[in-house]
Amino acid sequence: MLSRARPLLLALSLLASFASWAQSLVFINPGKSDEVYWVTAARAMQAAAADLGMRLEVRYAERDHLRAIQFAREIAALPTKKRPDFVIMSDDNGTGPEMLRLLDAAGVKNFFAFSSISPEGRVETGGPREKFKSWLGSLEPHAEDAGYFTAKSIIEQGRKANARRADGKLHMIAIAGDRATPSSIRRNAGMQRAVTEAGDVVLDQAVFAGWARDKAAEQAEWLFARHPEARLVWAGNDLMAFGAMQAWEKRGGVPGKDAWFSGVNTSREAMDAIVSGRLAALAGGHFICGAWAVVMIYDYAHGHDFAGEGLELDRTMFTLFDPARAATYVARFGEQFDQIDFRRYSKALNPRLKRYDFDFGQLLR
After folding, report:
1. Dihedral through CA 342, CA 25, CA 268, CA 65, nearest 10?
2. Is residue 168 situated within a structural domain?
3. Which of 97, 141, 155, 207 has the fewest Cβ atoms nearer than 10 Å?
């Protein structure tokens, strides 16, 4: 009887040893715990951590930048043995420098994903591994792509529909996220680039709705009244696009028929709207950034420092969704990402891998 118990005891001992050895991560999530984009990002990170044998805790700041800073303060105050090995965070609303200062003082290694320190914040922080030695690096989706792809798409659709007004121009309004988050700034820059390149587009007005659907709906009501010639509506995320569409429908309009709306993200509602034609353009896939960050940290912890590719990576991740791609995404993933083998993307586990490929499009092929 004792001989039969020994293999089980050995297995339990190994599992306990593995659990105590596995690297621990905390993700200070700037979004809300019921916000589709940030919940999706967290789920992808959990899938990556599970594949790589890491323990991940997600703390939602609920769009409260002071709460994000408080999380960093609480982590820094933990007894040394209870602190996580790594913290992943995002510089939303300029919170990065203060979180970095708190964690570095406690010697907690940290990494920025989604949005790194803004140019303004660099005056205080410098770059990774300079003034703050515990700041390992950053990974950001090339956010300008999202703004550019979606703006270019609705401009092309507006032309095909002959939506030019009496002055021979297409008129656009833009509803952006916020003024401080680097990814928001870059999405706006991509939109502006598409407008400049077009030559036949007038950007009537740009506003900031704080990524919120209800705020965008409120702003869109008076924007449509102030700019009656606008038929193109660019939005920095899907929620703001839906808010603007709601305001247009309230006026008797039909999105996709007499006005063209764009958004960013991969919510099921957005996918359905692309398939139906109600939403004219959608870029997404960048939620995977956090999962790729987990892979990079795993490699760092196993002796494969990503510094060879750069401490601050800005990579293509966005995909422009059409109905076919949207259907593929929904069928393949839904809301879970367990079918992705994140081990395949680790340099530590695949020595022949020389360069990270973070393009989301590869997961839809």
Report:
1. -150
2. yes
3. 207
Is residue 133 located within the same domain as residue 228?
no
d(CA 121, CA 135): 14
pLDDT digits (tens, 9 = 90+) for 257-315: 999 999 999 999 999 999 999 999 999 999 999 999 999 999 999 999 999 999 999 99
- Sequence-ordered list of residues with C-beta below 8 angstroms from that of 29, at least 6 positions apart, any chain: 38, 41, 42, 58, 59, 60, 61, 90
One domain, residues 114 and 171: no
DSSP string, 62-88: TT-HHHHHHHHHHHHHS-GGGS-SEEE
What is the Cα–Cα distance from 238 to 216, expressed in whole angstroms? 11
**Could you tell me if 152 and 128 lie in one domain?**
no
Residue 89 in contact with residue 117, Cβ under 8 Å? Answer: no
| Residue 336 banded pLDDT, cuts 50, 70, 90 | confident
CA distance 214 to 250: 14
Residue type, 267: S
Specify whether 297 is located in the same domain as 345: yes
Structure tokens at 152: 């270019």
The CATH number of the domain holding residue 130 is: 3.40.50.2300
- If asked whether residues 174 and 221 sit together in one domain, one would say yes
* Residue span of the structural domain in which 299 resides: 21-141+286-317+333-364
Which residues pair with residue 42 across a beta bridge?
A: none
Q: Using CA atoms, how far apart are residues 108 and 302, in angstroms rounded to an integer?
A: 17
The token duo for 121 is 């914040």
Residue 334, pLDDT score: 79
Q: How far apart are CA 346 and CA 364, in angstroms?
A: 19
Residue 75 contacts residue 84 (beta carbons within 8 Å): yes
Distance CA 104, CA 21 (A): 23
Query: pTM to 2 decimals?
Result: 0.86
The per-residue pLDDT for range 199-257, each reduced to its tens digit, is: 999 999 999 999 999 999 999 999 999 999 999 999 999 999 999 999 999 999 999 99
Query: What DSSP letter does each residue of 138-187 carry, written as one string?
Result: EEEE-HHHHHHHHHHHHHHHHHHTT---TTS-EEEEEEES-SS-HHHHHH
Helix (H) or strand (E) run with residue 206 in it = strand 201-208
Q: How many domains does the chain have?
A: 2
Judgement on whether residues 86 and 160 belong to the same structural domain of the protein: no
